[in-house]
Amino acid sequence: MAAMLAAVWLVLYPWKLKLMTIMAATAYSFTESMFTFGERGAPYTSVAQYWANLIYSPILLVAYGRYLRDHHVLYVFLFPANVWVLEVIVQALITAVHGRNVAWTYLDYTDSYFDGAIRIGHAVAWVGLGIICLLVDLALSLSVEGVLV
């Protein structure tokens, strides 16, 4: 499964999309480390999550942005749902490869759902990330038209 996902990324993603996914996954890894440090007292991210972000970033950012880029309020306030869909799908992919989610779990929170894949309490953080993603998308024109959908 891991080899198949790596092959999808290597063979099917154009170089511009690969570059965007590397930048997004790297930025998210740094952000996640700082977030977990603030929330749990120790920085944490994982190679599994990095790879999952490489695979899923085009949907999280490009496809989502394509439909909502011109609707700024919707883009920002629906972004938590966008991330939660990512978390459910990515947890399934990571579990298929590793037998369990080795990247994260929210099972120790009372507001976690989908077997610990998502946490409702992170909505505020995801709205903040939505603002950042929208501003970056608009400022840098990270649109990869014709690549998805």
Which structural class fits the helix and strand makeup? mainly alpha
Poorly predicted spans: none
User: Main sheet?
Assistant: 2 strands, antiparallel
The helix/strand order is HHHHEEH
Shape: globular
Mean pLDDT across the residues is 86
- Please give the order of strands in the largest beta sheet: 1-2
Cα-based radius of gyration, to the nearest Å:
15 Å
Helix proportion range: 55-70%
Strand content: under 5%
Secondary structure: number of strands: 2
Distance between the termini: 24 Å
Note the total helix count: 5
Task: Provide a short characterization of the protein structure.
The chain is mainly alpha-helical.
Highlighted features:
single chain, 149 residues, mainly alpha
Task: Give the arrangement of secondary structure elements.
Layout: H1 2-12, H2 15-40, H3 47-68, H4 72-98, E1 112-113, E2 118-119, H5 123-140
Task: Walk me through what this model shows.
The protein has 149 residues and is mainly α. The chain has helices spanning 2-12, 15-40, 47-68, 72-98, 123-140, and strands at 112-113, 118-119. A two-stranded antiparallel ribbon has the order 1-2. Helix 3 (47-68) packs antiparallel against helix 4. The longest helix is centred in the middle third of the chain and has 27 residues, at 72-98.
